[in-house]
Amino acid sequence: MVIAVISSIVQFSVSVNYNMVDYLPDDAQSTTAMDIMEKEFEGSVPNTRVMINDVTVQEALHMKENLAAIDGVNDVTWLDDAIDIKTPLEIADKDTVETYYKDDKAIISFSIREGDEVAVTDAIYERIGEENALEGEALDTAVAQKMAGSESMYAAALLIPIIILILVVSTRSWLEPVFFLTAIGVSVLINLGTNIFIGEVSFVTQSVAPILQLAVSLDYAIFLLHSFSDYRKKIADPKEAMRLAMKKSFPAIAASAATTFFGFMALTFMNFEIGSDLGLNLVKGIVLSFISVMVFLPALTVMFYKWIDKTQHKPLLPSFNHIGKRVVKVRIAVLILVFIMIVPAFLAQNNTNFTYGNGEQPEETRAGSDKIQVEKTFGEYTPMVLLVPKGDVAKEEELVQELETFGPVTSVLSYVNTIGSAIPLEYLDESITEQFYSDNYSRIILHTDAGTEGDKAFSLVESVQETTASYYGDEAYSLGESVTLYDMKHVVQKDNTLVNWLTIIAIAIVLLITFKSISIPLVLLLTIQSSVWINLAVPYFTDSALVYVGYLIISTVQLAATVDYAILFMETYKEYRKEMTALDAIKKTIDEKIFSIAISASILSSVGFILWITSTNPIVGAIGLLLGRGALLAFIMVVFFLPAMLLVFDKVIDKTTWKAKFYK
After folding, report:
1. Same domain, 237 and 278
2. Last residue of a domain, one of 459, 479, 499
3. What is the pLDDT of residue 431?
4. Distance CA 301, CA 245 (A)
5. pTM (2 d.p.)
6. Distance from C-alpha of 167 to C-alpha of 617, rounded to nearest angstrom
7. Within this chain, do residues 441 and 527 fall inside the same structural domain, yes or no?
């Protein structure tokens, strides 16, 4: 309890990183480009836009000065940076003018200092008022930071009463759920506090890990206290009853924790480090939950067992007898249906339309409505920056001219077309040239309307990179939100195969050791993996885009978190199979274990759906929806498909399991 109190205090000193760029591997092209630009140039890539309504050119210039005066706002760019506005706008290039000034509306671009997004965007809102609009990557980050704390509290406020209700229904004491939640809650607090040694966690980890740890490891506490309750009926001494309960439940809890541990461990091998950040936290959480249940919970229970006795109540749900008899009647239909679904589901989940960024802000929010207003007048805006070796002005001019012909490129800002290639650098003040030239590099800024991701955006990134490489080879670099997401796409797609195979192999080894069988791991993995494929195929068949990071994480998390259901079912079935026929053993196992599995699945499913409902962050929301639906599908597969598989492969399991001793 002392460690938990200390941890709950120090967790507020752990910083949360909302910038997905920081989680790309160091050798990614955009990461290298960002490092070079930070060393060579003071300015950064414009990542935010303000639209000012009903303004003259002079008023727009005044607003530009106002914005530039805000601490944290840099590289403010408007029409005067692209053309000489002393000459009449009517004789200037119309397309260039309308990129910045159109229908008496001015669009001003700038960058916001990383880490100060909330304070700076609040200051900008004060300057521009309600009638003007703000949009961009930095604003999305600011919104995510503001919402993270309140959403976590909202999710907890919804979740804890639901979990308590589920646990009250599943136990015979009003107070037992408090013991469950205290044991796991303490381990969650310690997990959050020990992040102080890591220093920083991602926003995905901060939002998902505590709730996921609670949902996945509550089973351990339920296993132990149910076993303790059984021994209390036979043994008068509570300490002895707890000692025997710990001994009996240890193998089940250890097997359950081990599969989850190794499943989450696979996430730590991701190159895209949001996965490894979440994986590390979940692995740490599982270890702490296991220790809490095997050390802290027994001590707590033995000390306060009289409170459990005093708060006993009658069962609140009817018995589940005779469900097994009904389930085995539909086994053939279930087998046929699942085998028909598996192949299309496997193919579909690989062909879903994926997104890689943070997604769109909801329309009903100011950020969402502002973005719609801005894009209605000026279209989508995605800046891209090129860094090319300094020196050959003629080559640079030729490249800029070619880039200006690209359809999605609305304008190009560079020394050669803004100042003029004929004017020598030494004739100009450094304040004019420093935004275009450093000691080693020339910077070219492309304004595009291709969006941040998707076929159009990624096709433009490829075209720009190929064109620039034809002039400068490997010495040129590109960066910007669309370039980052393009790199992210390639990094996470490589991660997918590695992480999935590592998860399956690790869990298969744990199952092999647990059941001392070759066939049982295959049957259990096929059951849960089928539910994963069906879950991830739903977005394809409903024609909805799926956040790839959510897909990648859930394909591991669902398998690791729900394989426990299959383990619990299999352990009970294996014991009964030594005493009776396969059919009778299946019926009895379903009758006995459907309730426990339903409780675990309903808790995990509630966690998922509440994350989905409460989170405005698309990645967290996607993980929540997939987790909620995945837990329900895993429950259905374990209750209906697994019994059918066990009946079909009974003889094979008998022959391929060491000392099976099945009843003949």
Report:
1. yes
2. 479
3. 60
4. 12
5. 0.81
6. 29
7. no
Shared domain for 454 and 556, answered yes or no, is no
Element (H, E) at 158: helix 137-170
Question: How many other CB atoms are found less than 10 A from the CB of residue 191?
Answer: 23
> Does residue 475 sit in the same domain as residue 378?
yes
CA gyration radius for the chain? 30
Containing structural domain, residue 149: 142-351+486-655
pLDDT tens digits for range 411-465: 888 888 777 766 666 656 666 677 788 888 888 888 888 888 888 899 999 999 9
Query: Per-residue pLDDT tens for 306-342?
Result: 888 888 878 777 766 788 899 999 999 999 999 999 9
Q: Are 167 and 602 in contact (CB under 8 A)?
A: no
Q: How many residues does the chain have?
A: 664
Listed residue (469, 472, 448, 474) closest to 460, CA to CA: 448
User: How many structural domains are present in the chain?
Assistant: 2
Q: Quick one: tokens of 223?
A: 């296993």
Query: Parallel, antiparallel, or unpaired for β 200-202 and 15-17?
Result: parallel
Give the model's pLDDT for residue 290: 94
Mean pLDDT for the chain overall: 86
> Is position 447 within any domain?
yes
> Of 439, 460, 479, which residue is a domain's last?
479
For residue 247, give the CATH number of its domain. Answer: 1.20.1640.10
Residues in a beta bridge with 133: 51
**Cα separation of 269 and 288, whole Å?**
21
Q: Are residues 427 and 568 in the same domain?
A: no
- 193/306 same-domain check: yes
328-362 burial, b if ≥16 CB within 10 A, otherwise e?
beebeebbeebeeebeebbebbeebebbbbbbebe
* pLDDT at residue 543 tops 90: no
User: Which residues make Cβ contacts (< 8 Å) with residue 143, sequence separation at least 6?
Assistant: 361, 365, 367, 616
Strongest mean pLDDT among 1-10, 401-410, 430-439: 1-10
Same domain, 495 and 444: no
Q: Looking at residue 37, what is its pLDDT?
A: 87
Alpha helices in 473-617 (DSSP H): 481-515, 519-541, 548-577, 582-614
Claim to verify: residue 457 and residue 521 sit in the same structural domain: no
For residue 139, the Cα-to-chain-centroid distance in whole angstroms is 20
Give the pair of three-digit tokens for residue 196: 């102080």
> Which residues have C-beta within 8 Å of that of residue 530, sequence separation ≥ 6?
338, 341, 342, 345, 637, 641
**CA 257 from chain center: how many Å?**
22
